[in-house]
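pipeline: protein-struct stage 2 | run 1193 | RNA 2',3'-cyclic phosphodiesterase
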Amino acid sequence: MRLFIAVDFSQQSKDLIIKQTRALKSSLENNYRWVDSKNFHLTLKFIPEADKQLRNSLVVALEESKLSLLPEYLEFDRLGAFPDLAAKKVLYLATANGTDQLKSYRLDLEKKLMKTGLIRDKRNFIPHLTLARQKNQAEVNIEDKFLENSFINIYAKLKRIALYESKLDSAGSEYRQLFSLNLI
């Protein structure tokens, strides 16, 4: 099974993200598949293949993790893209305040996950909330107003840390929560 560990946000925060990104979505709707707000999360660790034993070990690692390292709020302050703003295959909201605390928590969690046999991720961790994925190869131009620092400034309240199973189908990904620790 495909699993991931993620930070979830309060419904009020999700509603604010929808409101603040409405104009962006409207301007790019035909070129991107937009993430449903019920699936808004920030992935801390992706596990592409796991069995039941590893899943249970992940739950233990989450229970032992230092939740006190997490910020109460995470600030999203700009639009970003993977692999970059020129190619724009994936659009996301980038983090600012709270990022260092989130990275400290992730490092603590990674150490606990290594005890389960998982290898520490060598890639640079870029905390982000995915908004949309490009659905065609068309050239996409994002209006300058969406790239300005003043476009977005949201403090999102962290609600829980959760372990999810991800199932892929033709409509996209379906997530099923397997375990969670509430933060509020």
